[in-house]
Amino acid sequence: MPQTVAEKILAAHGRRREVEAGDLLNVQVDVAMANDITAPPAIEEFQRLGVERVWDADRVVLVMDHFCPAKDIAAATNAKASREFARAQGIKHFFEGGPAGIEHALLPEQGLVGPGEVVIGADSHTCTYGAVGTFSCGVGHTDMGVSWATGEVWMKVPHTLKVVLKGRRAPWVVGKDVILHIIGRIGVEGANYLSMEYHGDGVADLTMEDRFTMANMTTEAQGKVGLFPVDGRTREFLAGRFQRPYTVHEADPGARYLDTVEVDLSSLEPVVAAPFLPSNVKPVREVSGTTIDQAFIGACTNGWLSDLRIAAGLMRGKKVHPDVRCMVIPATPTIYRQALQEGIIDVLMEAGCSVSTSTCGPCMGGHMGVLAAGERCVSTSNRNFRGRMGHPESEVYLASPGVAAASAIMGRIAHPEEVA
Amino acid sequence: MKLVGRAWKYGPNVDTDVIIPARYLTEFRPAELAKHCMEDLDTSFTREVRVGDLIVAGRSFGIGSSREHAPVAIKASGIAAVIAPSFARIFHRNAINVGLPVVECEGIDEDVEKGDELEVDLSEGTVLNRRTGKLFRASRYPDFMLGIINAGGLVNYTRKRLRG
Known about the structure:
The complex is a heterodimer of chains A (420) and B (164). Chain A is an alpha/beta fold and 420 residues long.
């Protein structure tokens, strides 16, 4: 029977010749990742199982990124529990302090995830690795603890939504605009329980970083995974990083799709997602009078080097509006150093931005850049739910780095063209 | 298994950030999480919730993060089951793994009002609103998931499996 990419990967990991959507099966896990919020409870669940050692210490990854550098005693205690577990178990992929970055940028950058593999993470944005052809999805901490013991996870084989990208993007349209457009069209339930599988000549027009941003926000439409094809750009990204031999799976002709969404990239324009749902998508020009108090450029969605380049390109020789705080957080220390070497950080600081060490930070109102009642932020992160970045009466507009940078300068939501 | 309880009523897209805001996520003890459950959406919830109460909501209950703290907080608040036309994928999975019954029931949110007394039969897969007399049929769990629920969650289920 013709198979989708998701079906092929799950069949291979479930020791089946083929599977079909709806099948429930245990699959072998290639990497199982948790962070400083989810590792401590996952460790407790692991210990309740009465198993002494994790199934493969080299395939467990722990990243201290959410409330780290520790924001308070409770956060420090959680990081400590994770560190002690990593030491006791001989887990070498434990990231904390200097080498730590935001998990979903760090794992691909460090070559820990690759095509055709199954990766689970106790974080909903684990779906990011679909950009390199990984079947990756978020789970809770109980699933994580159990997979550490067994090397397996139970999966329901998802139906697939085919997304066909056509044409080339207009200037200032980036991966963030494409995925927001898609979520706006299909809604926050549009991909529930589904694999999103990308096709079409438009894929070639997207950089790896655009693809990471798009796969990252799969979960905002409640998708399980957002799978991109493995092409020349993917192979170039993986070269010198990902060391394991890998299998590239392509969908069979005649594979069964639940539905197809076609997107003409050339018809898109910069957009925002207004409060309080990521599907509340509007063109920037429709909301460009909206004043802001803060702009945030960072998060696992848009803390990539190309994102910082776009922001610096717009901010060079300009100043952040006096009524706005603009915060920039490179997603990983490698990105941070590259940005330093390129002079990007200097440009951003000269413009009046604050720049922080790599952390999830304000994205979920955890620490740094938390919003007060009535404050409004343009953010390159991925969620704008009520209270997401702080007080329940604060507001978050999701946007691309170009829109966030332009808005920071103008003091209101702005199209990059207005300042370019 | 039959549950009888009083309904709390919420709209669609109740997200994990309002079920348990991220500012409390340095904590994972159930009783501590319960102190802040739903507080950004409904400050009366933690004051007035009683053991055995039910939550009825619109579509996509639990959208957002993978934080298992969300079903844990709801369960530790005393809520016996959550009933909604649809649930977010990860929330649904986590709820089963921690032993919080989640009941998928089309149309339930159009009939139930806050305070209604409901009878939920988990094995039959039915929900009765005693006020309106309307009986709803819920979708049935696959046997595989029933196995996890009956074992009292994924950890107990896996312990049995590991013992062989």
